[in-house]
Design brief:
- The chain is mainly β.
- The chain contains 1 helix and 2 strands, in the order H-E-E.
- About 10% of the residues lie in helices and about 25% in strands.
- The termini are far apart.
């Protein structure tokens, strides 16, 4: 946890955490982008990706890329 806090001190760092619930209380909410992947029932090869982020980080999100589309 100390290592995570040290890395998070630098606002230029990007940190990806697979199981954030283990350290959720240590994450600065105003700097966290949540990305959730869900399996779709109708097609096992399809995923629903949900991205939530604070307004402060909207500059980092390309909304044109996030339109409802298949890649």
């Amino acid at each position: 946890k100390e290592e995570l806090q040290e890395v998070m001190e630098d606002e230029n760092n990007v940190v990806v955490i697979e199981w954030p619930n283990l350290v959720e209380h240590s994450l600065p909410e105003n700097r966290v982008i949540h990305i959730k992947f869900e399996l779709r029932k109708r097609d096992i090869n399809e995923r629903l990706i949900t991205i939530n982020y604070p307004d402060k980080l909207s500059y980092a999100i390309d909304k044109d890329v996030l339109e409802d589309r298949a890649w």
